[in-house]
């Protein structure tokens, strides 16, 4: 603001001061010493000292206050731009959300929720993937003690396979699951609904038969405002 203001204000003050100092002596026959003095007085009075000094001080105070609250801003231009902002986009993970996915839904098929979760946890033991950690955390909450699957192997972009009790398991994306086993329309609709709610959905297959669906989501922080 101060830059835009000075672009017009400073030349205007200088022109007015020059006219006051020159025009009366030339046109009206005034004394040069007197009118030059008055021109300099106008130039001095017209200098916006308070505005020039207060603006940098206000910006410095704002930057300091933001830093104390963990908000880093790159210069005063950022502060001036804030007044024009109508929409804000956040990197939600760890900002608006907990940064830690949690199991939100378990759709068991032909077995109980606990059995479905236990099989998924068997495959995920030893994995450091955030969604795998969510599965294992939920298993611990339900007092489920998973046993490590044999021949466990991750398949890039699809999921993970392994064997538990001689049964081949697959746990991964719905698209990858459909390559191995046909999904019913009802199950597709359930998966689509969960996806629309912003949840990550994984399908569990046991012996190339659907054993269940598990949905996970990085939940909003308690102090995050809805809007």
From TrEMBL:
Subcellular location: Membrane
Transmembrane regions listed in the UniProt entry: 12-33, 39-63
EC number: 7.2.2.12
Pfam families in UniProt: Hydrolase (PF00702)
Catalytic activity: Zn(2+)(in) + ATP + H2O = Zn(2+)(out) + ADP + phosphate + H(+)
MF GO annotations: ATP binding; ATP hydrolysis activity; cadmium ion transmembrane transporter activity; P-type zinc transporter activity
Primary localisation category: membrane
Protein name: P-type Zn(2+) transporter
Keywords: Membrane, Transmembrane, Transmembrane helix
Gene3D superfamilies xref list: Calcium-transporting ATPase, cytoplasmic domain N, Calcium-transporting ATPase, transmembrane domain
Record-stated family: Belongs to the cation transport ATPase (P-type) (TC 3.A.3) family. Type IB subfamily.
One annotated Gene Ontology cellular component of this protein: membrane
